[in-house]
């Protein structure tokens, strides 16, 4: 069984403990999705993966490309799908004709058999480490894909978006959140387009990375049960970095003029190997806290209610770059 599915084997019990009724105690009851990556040397048969997803109540999947092999297994499954367009295709998608071809091949060709909900245009294209490589092509690609979806007659139900790393916004406190100064213009343009077309903002939030990147980061603040808190303006208290990070984004969206833009957590998770803090025990602690939080539908201080979340990731991927750290493959 995939590492994440082993950790989620007790999902129903966790949700019951959080007060969710037996009739609804499944991961789909709390909008739980999962990222399905493919950078591994020994891939499971996609039909078996789909069987495991459904057996664990996971009815939403995010893919990083549109490979027909896994997509084919998702046909007629009832699983909601977010298809990805890799960063190295963004320049091509800046041509409307290419965007039109992509939609024809990967969206409309499957008809109603594929429960396509979102197209992820790029993946964290504004990372600081990319040095602006995709700054000129991301928004044109986004707009072309949405236009192609609209022209194909499916734009009302399929929305184009751009999964972004949490480094696109900054703020010492959640209430002070704003988009990074070097990308403020392009981010404001993009979120207003998303708002006008009914698309969500997709963000990847990793409390593990906060801990990994700074020896001074308070360990307990990375978890939902740590008992550590920080104070924001007006006496607001945050007990974990996930909520604080999420609300920093909400503040940034407000400053950009789209305070009500829907937010989806495109990736959140905890590695099980490759670092002193990457192990199954801490991963279980993190997932336990996240799932219980989701089951309560409490949201955050600035955005209360149900959260839409995709866990990362379904499998260990032994072909991934370890430049970010050895944990990246786990």
TrEMBL record:
| Signal peptide, first to last residue | 1-25
Q: Name one GO molecular function term.
A: hydrolase activity, hydrolyzing O-glycosyl compounds
Name a single GO biological process: carbohydrate metabolic process
The family database entries (InterPro entries) matched by this protein are listed as: GH (IPR017853), Glyco_hydro_17 (IPR000490), Glyco_hydro_17_plant (IPR044965)
Its domain of life reads: Eukaryota
Q: Per the record, GO CC terms?
A: plasma membrane
Q: Which UniProt keywords apply?
A: Glycosidase, Hydrolase, Signal
Q: Name one Pfam family in it.
A: Glyco_hydro_17
Family designation: Belongs to the glycosyl hydrolase 17 family.
Q: What is this protein called?
A: Glucan endo-1,3-beta-D-glucosidase
Upper lineage is:
Eukaryota, Viridiplantae, Streptophyta, Embryophyta, Tracheophyta
């Amino acid at each position: 069984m995939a590492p994440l599915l082993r950790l989620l084997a007790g999902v129903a019990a966790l949700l019951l403990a959080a007060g969710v009724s037996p009739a609804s105690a499944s991961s789909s009851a709390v909008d739980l999705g999962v990222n399905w990556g493919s950078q591994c040397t020994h891939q499971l048969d996609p039909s078996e993966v789909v069987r495991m997803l459904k057996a664990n109540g996971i009815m939403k999947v995010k893919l990083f490309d549109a490979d027909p092999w896994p997509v084919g297994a998702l046909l007629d499954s009832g699983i909601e799908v977010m298809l990805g367009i890799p960063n190295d295709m963004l320049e091509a998608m800046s041509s409307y004709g290419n965007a039109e071809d992509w939609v024809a091949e990967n969206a409309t060709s499957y008809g109603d058999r594929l429960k396509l909900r979102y197209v992820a245009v790029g993946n964290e294209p504004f990372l600081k480490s990319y040095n602006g490589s995709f700054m000129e092509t991301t928004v044109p690609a986004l707009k072309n894909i949405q236009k192609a979806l609209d022209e194909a007659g499916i734009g009302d139900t399929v929305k184009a978006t751009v999964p972004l790393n949490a480094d696109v916004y900054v703020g010492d406190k959640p209430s002070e959140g704003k988009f990074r100064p070097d990308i403020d213009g392009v981010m404001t343009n993009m979120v207003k387009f998303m708002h006008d077309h009914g698309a969500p903002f997709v963000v990847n939030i990793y409390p593990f990375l906060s801990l990994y990147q700074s020896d001074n980061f308070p360990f307990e603040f990375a978890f939902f049960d740590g008992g550590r808190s920080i104070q924001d303006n007006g006496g607001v208290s945050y007990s974990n970095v996930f909520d604080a990070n999420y609300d920093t984004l909400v503040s940034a969206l407000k400053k950009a003029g789209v305070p009500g833009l829907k937010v989806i957590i495109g990736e959140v998770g905890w590695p099980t190997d490759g670092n002193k803090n990457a192990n199954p025990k801490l991963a279980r602690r993190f997932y336990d806290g996240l799932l219980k939080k989701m089951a309560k539908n409490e949201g955050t201080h600035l955005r209360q209610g149900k959260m839409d979340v995709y866990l990362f990731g379904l499998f260990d991927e032994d072909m991934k770059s370890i430049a970010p750290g050895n944990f990246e493959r786990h």
